[in-house]
Amino acid sequence: MDNNFFEALAALGTENSVDVDILVEKVKTAMLKAARKAYPDCEENITIDIDPSTKKFEMYIRQTIVDDEPIDENEINIAAARNIDPNAMVGGTVQKRLNIDKFGRAAALSAKQSIKGDLRDINRARILEKFEDKEFECITCQVSQVEAGGTATLIYDNTEIYLFRKEQIPGEVLKEGQMVKVYVTAIANKQKKPVIKISRVRKELVKRLFEMTVPEIYDGIVEIKAISREAGSRTKIAVWSNDPNVDAVGACIGPKRSRISAIVAELSGEKIDIIPYSEKPEEFIAKALAPATVLRVDILTNEEKDRTCSIVVPNHQLSLAIGNRGQNAKLAAKLTGFKIDIKPEFEIVANEATGELVSDAETTDTVNTDNIADEDKALENAAEETIQESADELSMLDGETSDYIDFDNAYDSDEE
Hints:
single chain, alpha+beta, N Utilization Substance Protein A, Chain:P, domain 4, CATH 2.40.50.140, GMP Synthetase, Chain A, domain 3, 4 domains, four-stranded mixed beta sheet, 12 helices, 33% helix
């Protein structure tokens, strides 16, 4: 066998991250099957010798020496045997070297398919061993290629995995060589060819990042109670301290905001609101609507499958409470588990006789988080116009402040 075989064997091992010795055993098994097809009567007498160090690849049939005509390939006449071994004796055995070319195309193809099947099994076992304990965890990968359609090929421990466009953070541009953290959502098709599914848009990624960055969370002192996320835009995370001497929000922010800044950078600038969790629904809901100030929370129903509440906010903070396209209200609803109706403090109406704007009692118009996406734009515009026109009449509303944690100037001035 020429050196090309052993060079190909070494390349195959490198490509599949398989030890050459393992491949040699697989090749032996495959070639033995092929040889037995070519010599069906000699199944038990065929041996194979492959040694990569000496570049030796030989196959033999062990033949019994007879003094008459051989019955089949398992026997050899004494005269022919002495051509192989001058000391051969009748009743003894000799090793006859086989011509590998005699196997033919069908036998070679069978050997090739057998080796491919063995490699698939090896790769399957290797991938499962490498990723089975990484399921539902965060791993760090390197971007090796980004296709035109957006799908990125990542490398983790010499294994390629694919981050599809829909699982990438909206607006994020991945670059070759970049190190990114991803969340392993599942390992599919474990029985055949395992597929590692990863994501950067799941809220679980944010949870794992906080666990990795904040020692108090890893140690169980600070607990993450709930997370709601709109990837690429904003995340709200509710935290609770099991130690009265530890501030849960402060622990997540870190000294000089180092911890929260690291997480925000990993998420490509995504804004993060850290909300102090409360076992009192009214208090928790009010904090969840940050950066808006909540004047009053009324719990309407608090059953497991039907939780609704009504929120009253200052008129000038109505659009802030709702958020762009209802984002702030929807995230607060997901965080708390309540359907939220948001009401402004006063309704501004026109006096039919004078045409002047006057303040009325609390409005009955509500903003419901179930259909907020369709209604919030019109409501925001209307609220902003009427508040601007009645600024003098409603001067008592000026100076209201909002109770929230502002990390990297998260809330744009135009939003307020």
